[in-house]
Design the sequence.
DNA sequence: GAAGAACTGGACCAGCAAGTCCAGTTTCTT
DNA sequence: AAGAAACTGGACTTGCTGGTCCAGTTCTTC
């Protein structure tokens, strides 16, 4: 999967090594950014050698793409229970609260791992941009699904566009994270998400 | 100003050289990011030498801070007429239209120069983070001023918080730019700004 | 016009980056 | 058991990076 180009089979050991590499890369990238993560760092953190890196990945970009997928998986897993209940304003607010609390716990250091990656790599090669698009879309998906449910159940007006709303929420989220990281305070993130949820609420039906 | 540490006087030639360096740096950083811009690149683009760079700036970080200021100035100058008329919903919409049009013209390549810089550097040294905070605050200032005017003139309800609204709009802007750059389409930016302006509109008084 | 400050040119350095190569080991297949 | 394929170790290359240094030029000031 990951990148094609890899037709060889993976033995159990090989799969474990590959996993270790991706996990280490994702972790390092989250903390130091893509440019700030060298292959030597990855080798050290995953206890592997250059040849192993190049055995499983075509080059650094390829490895970074795998790390982007991994980040997305991790995000989805972390937010899992909340992500499945975004079909009400209360659910959206619970999600926001959890998110903000997590950021505060991290003292608002480091923004969104996916956002940082996108900021750094989205202007690079198209293959990577394509992966980033898919990652964002995947992350926004639960949002879209929840909002669609709300509309179909008549709790949002029929002129509400779940697709557009989900994208706007994601934008508020990303921008909020960026400002929060810059100001080292969850205030901007909170304000951005509050705005986004209020915006959804403005489509709510009377009932 | 820029960084202190520079007590020496600038001759006309010196000032010109310094200006050339900062302009070249800002330009390169806008196109390739901070990590993607080497001092050699700056030297070539500004027709200067290493010693000149280090004569005017303490190190690369110092130079990047100067570039951040320059970016902010440039942004403000570019959006000037619109930025002074953010005291009505119509004014906000004109600003949004101009902004989106500019992004489309650039084919949504490269995001916000300030946003990219923040994403890369906000986790670095505190001095740089401080500059980035000030840059964002300066940029959001016209927004805050316009919204305050609207409220004071009774066109926004008195419970509208211009400070919070301005920050939320800025977040939507940054997030919208990030997604637009990733998707190579102005659609996310448009949706994010529409949401933000609708949010302001939700505080409008009947009149 | 001369001292001193501002400015400039570019050689040089040590460290680190991505990526290559090959020789060797382990595991799968038949 | 043996050949093939998967896997591993790490030395090595090439090029670039931020940063230092110093010798020389231009400008300002008195």
Sequence:
């Amino acid at each position: 999967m990951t990148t094609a180009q890899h037709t060889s089979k993976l033995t159990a050991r090989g799969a474990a090594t590959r996993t270790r590499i991706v996990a280490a890369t994702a972790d390092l990238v989250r903390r130091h950014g893509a440019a700030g993560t060298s292959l030597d760092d990855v080798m050290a953190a995953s206890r592997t050698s250059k040849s192993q890196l190049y055995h499983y990945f075509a080059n650094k970009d390829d490895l970074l793409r795998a790390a982007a997928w991994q980040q997305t998986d991790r995000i989805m897993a972390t937010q899992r229970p909340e992500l499945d209940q975004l079909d009400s304003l209360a659910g959206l607010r619970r999600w926001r609260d959890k998110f903000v609390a997590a950021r505060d716990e991290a003292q608002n250091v480091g923004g969104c791992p996916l956002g940082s990656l996108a900021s750094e790599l989205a202007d690079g090669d198209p293959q990577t941009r394509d992966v980033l698009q898919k990652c964002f879309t995947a992350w926004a998906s639960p949002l879209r699904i929840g909002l669609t449910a709300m509309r179909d159940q008549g709790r949002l007006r029929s002129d509400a566009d779940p697709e557009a709303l989900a994208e706007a929420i994601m934008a508020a989220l990303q921008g909020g994270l960026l400002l929060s990281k810059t100001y080292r305070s969850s205030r901007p993130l909170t304000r951005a998400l509050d705005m986004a949820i209020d915006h959804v609420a403005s489509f709510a039906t009377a009932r």
In short: Residues 9, 11-14, 38-40, 50-51, 53-54, 59-60 of chain A lie near DNA strand C (CB under 10 Å from a C1'). The domain at 68-201 of chain A is CATH 1.10.357.10 (Tetracycline Repressor; domain 2).
